[in-house]
Amino acid sequence: MPGDVGDTAGPPTLRGLLASLVGAVRSRPPAELALVALPLPSLLVGVSLLPGVEAWRLSLATEGVFESRWALWTAFASSFVHTDPAHLLDNVVNYWLLVAVAYPLSVVAGWRRRLLESVATYLAVVPLVSAWATIVALGGLTDAPTAGFSDVNSALLGYLVAVWFAALATESARARSETPLGVDPRWSVVAVFASLAVVYLVPSGAGYFPPLPAVGSLFAVGAALAATGLYAAVGRPRVAGLDLTPERELLYVTGASVAIAGVIGSLVLVPFGSNVFAHLAGYVVGFAVPFVGVLADGGADRGGG
């Protein structure tokens, strides 16, 4: 989190955590905080209040995203429509939870601009990609409508994995002059491949998404190959001795916890009726967009601001 608040010795206290949070919030321009926290939830609430918005849900009887202008519109607009207030509240709360950790990590990594650019890309691309993935997987099996912002939230989950490693790489770069520390942000691809392996190997709560051991094994092999290649090229991640404040350490623990819980809750142990294919599409796109920037930056050698 921006700014080091608190003593590096001893565990974090409630007072120290609150002081760190208040100090971090005060250190950021109010307009920037408002831009991250308010427009999208306001848009979702506003859309839910429009008359006849139920018709914007995507019908799985549609043969393709580009079948007609109406199909294209519902493929896009359905991501901003919700079935009921509880569904809307769930997605708004999940959005706030994700940006609450993704934003401070973006500040640490120098990714504030990349965060805004990534979100803009997600809003334009993810609804169509998730609609296409859903139609390919489930089209013709049912004519049930699908809707919800969870595909874009899943994209933010993918972004969180990328920025977590990027922020840690920035921390290690600051200490590298004194100790042989190092975390290359490209290690994030290993985490994503491993998470996708788990998704396809573990039974989910959605009966229409059974385990696919062959696909899961491919992702596991991909994770192993990526880890082997990165180990040979840049060495293993070395983070012990970064001497972060307890509050800053808590940011990384919280970020990792949100990412792990997000993968489990949206891709593994999901309730029946959840659109796992839309979540998967969003997660993959959400990670790929900032990861392209990481590759363009040349790994850990340059920042991503």
UniProtKB/TrEMBL annotation:
Q: Which organism is it from?
A: Halorubrum lipolyticum DSM 21995
What's in the GO CC field?
Answer: membrane
Its transmembrane ranges are 93-112, 119-140, 152-169, 189-209, 215-234, 250-270, 276-296
Sorted UniProt keywords: Membrane, Transmembrane, Transmembrane helix
Q: What is its membrane topology?
A: Multi-pass membrane protein
- UniProt KW Glycoprotein keyword: no
SUPFAM superfamilies the record matches: Rhomboid-like (SSF144091)
What domain of life does the native source organism fall in? Archaea
What protein does this entry describe? Rhomboid family protein
Quick check: keyword Transmembrane in the entry?
yes
Cell location: Membrane
